[in-house]
Design goal:
Distance between the termini: 25 Å
Oligomer: single chain
Number of domains: 2
Shape: elongated
């Protein structure tokens, strides 16, 4: 929703401009908030055009390929490349001066993540901290390193890594975890039919069930409802090398804009 808020803030500052100018400005604003993109397009559907003066937009569409989001302090410098980002909003109705929604805003989003891009992101300090939590979930003092994720053909995901008791332990165990991810009622992550082996030896489910339960609670989209945001996952598909997620998000208010303003002029040619 931050991307939508960013586009709308620039869009309504040009309320009387033509659609092409507004789309170019929106693309320029978005490129200031991402690290890189192979392709980035914004389409604003509005008939008649003067509706924008009253805060109405029929539909806003964003399509990106090879998008790398700009890291934030919270991410601790971590970046993640998305193979595809497609976003389409419901009709938008807001106060053009305050950007306060007159009615809730809904948007459908589709994300495609490649295993190789996820594995690169797992090398970041922020991801390493999360992996240490996973290691400790298997027992006090355990650490998980050298992670590699695979998206398999049967809808399953495999995580392979080295498990050690303490960072200096030379006797690493090869840990391989597999599961079939599912989103229960569109909100809560479940890891069905899980299996874990250490050096090829199966580990009883009771040994790591508590860890799985903790992950399901942490990745539960219902926790955003207290912020006025309803999110539901409609599809979660794992195919060899890629993971596709389709979701619908509905919010009562747009997030406040943060970060620097664009310094480009309106109508500037899009960077390749």
């Amino acid at each position: 929703m931050e991307l939508i808020a960013l586009i709308l803030s620039g869009l309504f500052s040009l309320a009387g401009s033509g659609g092409l100018v507004a789309e170019r400005l929106s693309q320029s604003l978005l490129r200031d908030q991402i690290q890189s993109a192979d392709k980035l397009e914004v389409r604003i559907d509005n008939r008649p055009n003067y509706q924008i003066l009253q805060g109405h937009v029929d539909r806003l569409r964003v399509a990106g390929r090879g998008v790398v989001l700009r890291p934030t302090r919270r991410d601790n410098g971590a970046t993640l490349r998305l193979q595809a980002v497609d976003l389409e909003t419901d009709p938008i109705d807001l106060n053009p001066s305050s950007l306060q929604l007159r009615r809730p805003l809904g948007a459908a989003v589709r994300l495609v993540l490649r295993a190789e891009d996820l594995n690169q992101a797992l090398q970041s300090p922020a991801a390493q901290c999360q992996l240490q939590r996973l290691g400790r979930g298997l027992g006090p003092g355990y650490t998980l390193s050298e992670p590699q994720v695979e998206f398999l053909s049967n809808g399953r995901i495999r995580l392979r890594g080295s498990l050690r008791r303490g960072n200096q332990d030379p006797n690493a165990l090869t840990a391989v975890f597999e599961a079939a991810p599912q989103v229960q009622q569109g909100a809560r992550l479940l890891l069905n039919q899980p299996s874990l082996t250490l050096n090829g030896q199966p580990v009883p489910l009771a040994f790591y069930q508590r860890l799985l339960d903790g992950l399901s609670q942490e990745y539960d989209l219902r926790r955003f409802q207290s912020q006025g945001i309803t999110a539901r996952v409609l599809q979660l598909n794992s195919t060899p090398g890629e993971l596709e997620l389709v979701a619908y998000v509905r919010t009562n208010q747009l997030p406040a804009r943060s970060g620097r303003r664009s310094r480009r002029v309106v109508g500037e040619t899009e960077r390749p």
